[in-house]
Amino acid sequence: MTSNDDLIDAFWAAQARGEYFPRAYFDKLSIDQAYHVQLGVIARRCAAGERQIGWKVGLTAPAIQQQFGFHEPVFGCILETVASGHVFTPADLIRPGFENELCMRLGRDLVGQVTLDQARAAIELVYPSLEIIETRGPFTEQIALALADNAQQKTVVMGAPVSLPPDPQSVAARVLINDMVVAEGTGDAVLGNPLNSVVWLAGKLGTYGRSLKAGEIIMTGSFTRQFPITPGDSIRTEFAGVGSVATRMTL
Hints:
Layout: H1 4-16, H2 31-47, E1 54-58, H3 62-68, E2 74-78, E3 81-83, E4 87-88, E5 96-106, H4 116-122, E6 123-134, H5 143-148, E7 153-158, E8 172-177, E9 180-186, H6 194-206, E10 217-219, E11 227-228, E12 234-239, E13 243-249
Helix pairs in contact: 1-2
């Protein structure tokens, strides 16, 4: 059996040549191996000068689980953010899409199994946010390779922060593309409550010897299904009682 270190070497080399879903590993990587590869590759990126600033929890909403045929949450690493209003060019992104999420900043550490109340007490600020994802390979057919490739994460667009709402599960979101409403959702689509993503993540990271640190951000999961971004698109999500966030792509 190939060691995790050898897998990390192989995926690191593949990414260096622009192969994000190495064909040699199609249908051959377990979910556990995929997470070890993800964490190992991210560690190398950080050693090369990048900085991990938080985590994403994905595949939390029933609409997204149905969209991709995978029925448990997943995690990825966040290395960068941009401010609301950021403008992308088509050359910036690979087959991009976006999700509408509450991004939570931790004010204290969370280690291992935690309760919902402990997660709530740890949240310092909440941001209306868009996760910008890239489909760098056959995501639905090769979920493990997608996790090894950091779960589609590219960047996060963040609006102005506010205090955690009393009932994040009740926050309503309205999604607009080119000023047309394309979807609406509420926070209870995210594992019943976006705070449950924090609970799940703390426990899951514990199985890999990791924990959540004060100051890190957590993208908690999309209120609606994922949408593609095409050149010329203007995107905006309005979260009731939290605020709005927007971005666009040039032609």
